[in-house]
Amino acid sequence: MVVSVELNNRLKIIAIICTAVFLVALGVFLGGTFFRGGRTSPVHFAPSPSVPLADSPEVRDGDSKRGREMYNVTVEQAKSLPNDTKVLLTGNITESLGDEKYIFRDPTGEIMVEMERELLRHVSVSAGDSVEISGEVDIERRQLIIDVENIRKK
């Protein structure tokens, strides 16, 4: 009888330990949401500390439904922002690379942008035309691309 009670207590301890390990593993698998109070994505993006304060991007209300702000930045500043940051850029589309990829240029540099052909059906853009694009920073295979969601001629 004593052996049975001792064995039963050990099984309970093992079950508790297994449950704790499972919950921690599940939290890690779900991207840490277990440890962040259930939120699956950040509520607010801040510019990268590598963007100088004197030239810090202007914050615009971008995607209020998802609690994200859009930053009016230069190409140089966009290159130092984290993945999924909403951005607004003003400059020129200078070259088509095919497969919905283009080179975008402003006075601070060049960056690759990706936009669906559907976006260009609504606006006529020629090389040299000043445009404003909004989208988000997308880091794919260690290459930064702006995933364009909207374009308008300036």
Globally, the shape reads: rod-shaped
The total number of structural domains is 2
Report the structural category: alpha+beta
Number of helices: 3
What's the quaternary structure here? single chain
Strand content: 35-45%
Taken in chain order, the helices and strands follow as HEEHEEEHEE
Mean pLDDT: 74
Main β sheet profile = 5 strands, mixed, barrel
CATH homologous superfamily title of the largest domain? Bacterial OB-fold
Strand order of the largest sheet: 3-4-5-7-6
Number of strands: 7
| Name of the top-level CATH class of the largest domain | Mainly Beta
Instruction: Kindly report how far apart the N and C termini lie.
Output: 86 Å
List segments where confidence is low: pLDDT < 50 over at least 5 consecutive residues. 31-56, 61-66
Which fold name fills CATH's third level, the topology of the largest domain?
OB fold (Dihydrolipoamide Acetyltransferase, E2P)
Compute the gyration radius: what is it?
Answer: 24 Å
The portion of residues assigned to helices is 10-25%
CATH architecture field of the largest domain? Beta Barrel
How would you sum up this structure, described in words?
The protein has 154 residues and is an alpha+beta fold. The protein has two domains: 40 residues; 101 residues, Beta Barrel (OB fold (Dihydrolipoamide Acetyltransferase, E2P)). It is 24% helix and 38% strand. The protein contains three helices and seven strands; from the N terminus they run αββαβββαββ. A five-stranded mixed barrel has the order 3-4-5-7-6. The longest helix is centred in the first third of the chain and has 28 residues.
